[in-house]
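Sample entry was shown:
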Amino acid sequence: MAQLLYGTILVVPVCAMSHETAHGTAFRTRWLNDAVCWITSLVYLQEPLHRRYTHTQHHTYTWNTEKDAQLAGHLTMDFPGWLDEVLGFSMYRFHISALWTLAASRYSKTVLDCVPESELPKLTRNARLFILIYCVIAMLIDFGHMWLFWFIVLPLLIGGVSMLLFTIIQHAEMQENTPSILESTRSFKTIWPASFLYMNMEHHVAHHLYPQIPFYSLPNLNQALKQQLPEPGPGFWRTNLELLSVVVCRSLGGNTKARGIRQAPHKITDGHQDKVSQKIM
């Protein structure tokens, strides 16, 4: 439990800060945003420029099955797909694969579509440096520096579950291939400590509507737009439990209508809809 608490306090703000600095809105100066983005991206295995450009693509083509570079692996989730996402297997597979291919100067169609050609050598340089750093950490642990494992590696793995519970409810069960952010994106309610750790990203619809608004202004923006926005999900835990109930029912062949969270109409079935799973590189 201590590792879970420590890992959550470590990983959730790191993820949120990586996201905010990828937008370039955490600090006034570009170099400070770049430096923090570089360090925080190192924590969860994603090359920072790849992070920035694919995230820009995500905002430009939110939940578009052909163009969203950060589309979740499981569009219509069953329970195994939910586990794959929440336990981080899908994310780590993607990030490790991306690191190796970038380090080898092999660029996927997604990378070539959203990253300027002049930036590609930087992606390769950073990926190789990241891999070198991870190898050094692994060697230090092997040589007996176990504090690195107990205070960094293990908490990151455990805390990653908390981080992914925050991120999975942003778009899961929402409408794909729509120009409307209101249909593709979900906000949710949460208590102030979680909002603090997550840097106000529970206001996710407002964030997608105005992605260059800094995190500290999102509560005021959300309040100003409140009458024009859909009802947010009913709290962090309840929204996640609602999503879990949907994916369990889908796996068991039951009715997939959620009682308290918004869903795309085609996600609501009596259990006979074919399951859809798509991996995006």
The two ends are 34 Å apart (CA to CA). Residues 273-281 have pLDDT under 50 and may be disordered. Residues 2-176+236-267 form one domain. The longest helix spans residues 120-142.
